[in-house]
Design a protein that fits this description.
Layout: H1 20-23, E1 27-31, H2 36-47, E2 51-56, H3 65-68, E3 76-79, H4 85-95, E4 99-102, H5 109-114, H6 116-137, E5 142-146, H7 172-191, E6 199-204, E7 208-209, H8 219-229, E8 233-236, E9 241-243, E10 245-246, H9 248-263, E11 270-272, E12 280-282, H10 283-293, E13 299-302, H11 305-309, H12 322-328, H13 336-351, H14 356-373
Parallel strand pairs: 1-2, 1-4, 2-3, 4-5, 5-6, 6-11, 7-10, 8-13
Antiparallel strand pairs: 9-12
Helix pairs in contact: 2-14, 4-6, 6-7, 10-13, 13-14
The structure holds nicotinamide-adenine-dinucleotide.
Length: 374
């Protein structure tokens, strides 16, 4: 079950630079704004002058980027569950968003093995509820649903996946993201097909890194948490190769896509935002690089063990981002080494007691400058 990529031949957004005039005073709703990616996105939107409303069930980690960077001070926050249709519809009626970026999810593969039903309820029915609330509201111009590179049926091959390839997923998380894609496509074709309606797109990116991630069972958060606490972290499968990119790379893609969709209905489809091929690196390489950047980073290598052996680890999915490059002018502006430098700098600043709101804002500004100069 693939999703038709949509005809965008000949269409190209002029540059992947973000237009401050477009975003200034724009009403934007971000679901999942208290999470890692949501906090970065909300801060970036605030810096662009948007009126941001967030909708999330709570703050997923302790500590959190949301609290450390005081994200909530520059926006409206609504506490609600995407499984609750009425709460979402009310939030949309209050915020009257022109643009919606959907990131609220149960995002951890391992949790999806222990809580499969909740994972599908949040990731699939949450998407259905949001799309239906947007459909009934009728005023949202652009919606971007953030799924994952894991939405593809992993054929365990070495080629990069393109947007029209079949959805799938071995584990409940990956499958729930594939389902979220299929739901998005069905709503787009059934209810949002006309030029005047909401323009609905989905965005697929993988493994992101950056300051302020405290999720469990992710390599860099585990290492940084341990470094801050002065202990060694457990690292498994150092040979396993994964694609890595700084969180600002895909977020730039989501914003560029939303901005482009505003004027070009042809962009309403699925988009990959993956890192360069050379930024797929073994876990062990990442660990060594982090240790070189911050000697506090220490680790102990461990076998996965029988407890984890049922957790299927697939060959990593490589995304082909040619469409985003040619039609949106998007490319990852910070390659992996720069992304790792900035990530470690963030945790070192926290360790040194710096103001993390100012530090995070400066990283966003520095990232935006690369685009302005390119
Ligand atoms: N971080 C990654 O490497 C990565 C990779 C691929 C895709 N993604 C996707 O990006 C999105 C954001 O991921 P993240 O890493 O920031 O996750 P996160 O756990 O840091 O944040 C998740 C957000 O969703 C909210 N949320 C969870 N359940 C909810 C519910 N029932 N109702 C309302 N809000 C709810 C949380 O409160 C939080 O704001 C997710 O859709 C995730 O699947 C993340």
């Amino acid at each position: 079950m693939g999703i038709r990529p949509g005809a965008v031949a000949g269409v190209a957004v002029s540059r992947a630079t973000l237009d401050a005039d477009f975003w200034c005073a724009r009403r934007v709703m971000v679901t999942g704004h208290t999470g890692f990616k949501g906090s970065w996105l909300a801060l970036w939107l605030q810096a662009l002058g948007a009126h941001v409303t967030g909708f999330s069930v709570g703050i997923p980690t302790q500590p959190s980027l949301f609290e450390l960077a005081r994200v909530g001070e520059g926006m409206e926050s609504i506490v609600g569950d995407v499984r609750d249709y009425r709460a979402l519809a009310d939030a949309i009626a209050i915020a009257r968003p022109e643009v919606v970026v959907h990131m609220a999810a149960q995002p951890i593969v391992r949790t999806s093995f222990t809580e499969p039903r909740a994972t599908y309820e949040v990731n699939v029915m949450g998407t259905v509820n949001l799309l239906d609330a947007v459909r009934r509201d009728g005023e949202v111009r652009v919606l971007v649903n953030v799924t994952s590179d894991k939405c593809y049926e992993n054929r365990e091959w070495e080629w990069a996946y393109r947007e029209h390839e079949p959805m799938g997923g071995h584990d409940p998380y990956s499958s729930s993201k594939g389902c979220s894609e299929l739901v998005t496509d069905a709503f787009r074709r059934s209810f949002f097909a006309g030029d005047d309606g909401t323009r609905v797109a989905s965005a697929r990116a993988g493994n992101v890194i950056g300051g302020g991630d405290w999720a469990c069972d992710r390599l860099i958060p585990d290492l940084m948490r341990a470094a801050l606490e002065g202990r060694a972290a457990v690292v498994r499968s150092p040979q396993s190769i994964r694609p890595w990119q700084h969180v600002l790379n895909p977020l730039c893609g989501y914003l560029t896509l939303a901005q482009g969709l505003w004027s070009l209905a042809e962009l309403a489809s699925a988009w990959n935002f993956g890192p360069a091929d050379e930024d797929a690196r073994p876990v062990g390489w990442i660990v060594e690089r982090l240790q070189a950047l911050w000697p506090r980073v220490r680790c102990i290598e461990e076998d996965p063990g029988p407890e984890r052996s049922h957790v299927h680890e697939a060959r990593y999915l490589k995304l082909d981002s040619s469409r985003a490059r040619s039609h949106l002018g998007w490319r990852p502006r910070w390659e992996l080494c720069r992304g790792l430098d900035e990530t470690v700098a963030w945790y070192r600043a926290l360790h040194a007691g710096e103001d993390m709101a100012a530090f995070t804002a400066a990283q966003i500004e520095s990232y935006a400058q690369v685009g302005a100069l390119a």
